[in-house]
Each structure stands twice: as C-alpha cells, then as structure tokens.
Prior knowledge:
This protein is α/β, with parallel strands linked by helices. The chain binds 2-phosphoglycolic acid. The site of 2-phosphoglycolic acid (PGA) has 13 residues, from strand 8. 2-phosphoglycolic acid binds next to strand 8.
Amino acid sequence: MSNAKSLIVGNWKMNGLRADLKEIEAVADSIQQNSFNGDVVICPPATLAALAVDKTVQSPLKIGGQDCHAKEAGAFTGDISAEKWKDLGAEYVIVGHSERREYYREDDKAVRAKSAAVIRAGLTPIICIGESLEERRAGNTLAVVSEQISGSIPEEAKSSPIAIGYEPIWAIGTGLTPSIEEIAEAHSLIRAELEKLLGTSGSTTPILYGGSMKPSNAKEILAIDDVDGGLVGGASLKSKDFLEIIASF
Ligand code: PGA
C-alpha cells in the first residue's frame, strides 16, 4: 500500500441505457451501507450522467466523465468541456483512455491539454497510459510508460490532485492480464516517475490498474504495492461484479 487514496473507477464506455441506472443505484446503496475507505466512481455514458448524479447525490458514490474537450466552451459540436462536467456534478474525468488515443488519434499533447482543463475546472483527471502488445514484446514497456507520463501530465498537477490509470492496451477487454510481477514492475516505475515529476505529491497520486480486472483477479492485483485501485470496464456494468471488486480491496 502506498500513501495514496484508494480509488475504484467503473468505466461504462458506450454501454448502458436508462434501465441500467438501477446498477448505479445498487452500487450507491451498498457503499453507503458498507463504507469504503477511498472513492468509488462510475463514469457512465454522457446520456446517463445527469440522471446518475440525481440518483446518487445522497450517497458517497461519485460520478465521472469518460472524456472532455480542452476548451471551456464554444463551437465544438458533440463535445463536452470539463466545466460542463463540473456543472453536472461530476468529480472525476477520464482522459487519454487508449480507445481515445487509438480511435481519435489523441496524442500525449492532447491528453495533457485535457488533463489541464479538468484541473482548471476543479475536478480530478484520471490520466490513462499503457503499452501495446508490440511495445511489450519489443521490451519497451517501461520506456513507453515513462514517455507517456512526462508527455501527458500537465504542470498544474504539481499543485492539484490527479490519478493515473495504468492500462496495458492488450489487457483491455481481452480477459488477458499481465502477471503480478509485471504489474508490480510497471506501477513501481510509474511511482518513481511521478515522484520525479511532481515531487511529494507524486507519492500520494493514486495509480490504478486497468485491463480485464474482475472479481476473480481483483484481490491479488489490488494487494500489489503501488496499486491504489482499479479502472474497471466490463466488470463495472453489473453492480454485483463491481461490488465484489470493491469488497475485495
Ligand atoms: P476492461 O476495460 O476492464 O473491460 O478490460 C478497462 C478499461 O478500458 O478501462
């Protein structure tokens, strides 16, 4: 365990309809009764986010966005700014998810600008990094991850909270996960890089593991030093699985 706050984040991606809000309510009710020492966040699609905030406002469950625009407002059809997420009642925004980096060609510079926007709005960015299978096979994992850290984390992170999501791209949605040793190695490198870049706040920045985390492997992964929580995709869609992951922490 590091000195960072514990954080479990469910990323619903482009999944979920109004009928699925009951899953969010079930998580909210459960964590209210069995208090969790840290933050639990669900990032539903934008269409459900306001409804989710209304339904969970009395509970400790927090709602987050999955992405944002770097500008505050303007003619950007279809986009949502960090200030809009703040206005809605969100507390976190995921930025630089590998699906955004891959399908929308978001590079470190874009991720850095979005991260700065989230901080500017007074929210916490969950900045995602992680290597591809080719990069891992070529032995470049640690070099890729260090480059993403220095490229994606903005100056503002020295004085405002951020979280890091380490998600090996080949583990996302595939059922594959790195070995415990591989996760431990990546997280300890990320911790060292954060301390180099951010000074003392680098030692209290939560570093989340993401990629096929599920009830059957969460306990072992969450017990690793410098794993301060999880970024959970598929297994966050059903409250039963997500609550099992939370309980295993
Ligand atoms: P997964 O997704 O848990 O379905 O692998 C994780 C993520 O992409 O955040």
